[in-house]
Description:
The protein has six helices and eight strands, in the order βββββαβββααααα.
Amino acid sequence: MSxxxxxxxxxxxxxxxxxxxxxxxxxxxxxxxxxxxxxxDALGRRDGPITFxxxxxxxxxAARARIVxxxxxxxxxxxxxxxxxxxxxxxxxxxxxxxxxWWIPYRINCTVLQDEAAAIxxxxxxLAGSVLGDVGxxxxxxxxxxxxxxxxxxxxxxxxSTVAGTAVYGAANAAINAGQTxxxxxxxxxxxxxxxxxxxxxxxxxxAIAGTGAAVTTTGQLAALATANAxxxxxxxxxxxxxx
Length: 244
């Protein structure tokens, strides 16, 4: 597995030979009702201990084991990082079996204070929901005006589309920009259809009625396109503020 960082100590290779056990449960209040019905209130995550074991090895094995034991004794919050995981933990238990100066088996049990990566994941999820909501409104608004924006939510549905720096993020931004261009083109085509001659024509009542009906239709299209453009614009701004 990738290196694991616990406070100032970097563990790699045989030092984290077991992998890392993590997870936990959800605190639940279960209410049993007459007739067998049940109501369950979810009260929040309850992180279980993070555990792993391995072998300190090499010329500095004893020194590194001693550092971890000192950290255990201090009882201070420490960063625990590996792969995509980032927790703040306190070492609950550290047990080492000194066999020789260059090979020391150990096991460690950490109590989670906070899952630091969860806030990042939640932020990405919130951004994705906000952008998709805006794009969905834009798609619905543009459809009556004859503008198909379905390619935009399709691009945003890809995993990682709201994570800056990824290829799918670039594709999602390109889709939003293309949607804005399509809306602008449709708006430019509709605007010239509203001169005064449309309303009054040759002066005949029938022409005026027809012109007024066409003007109402065109005005509705322009309003729908303006709405679509506004929501696409907000989606573009939110995407520009996405984190890596």
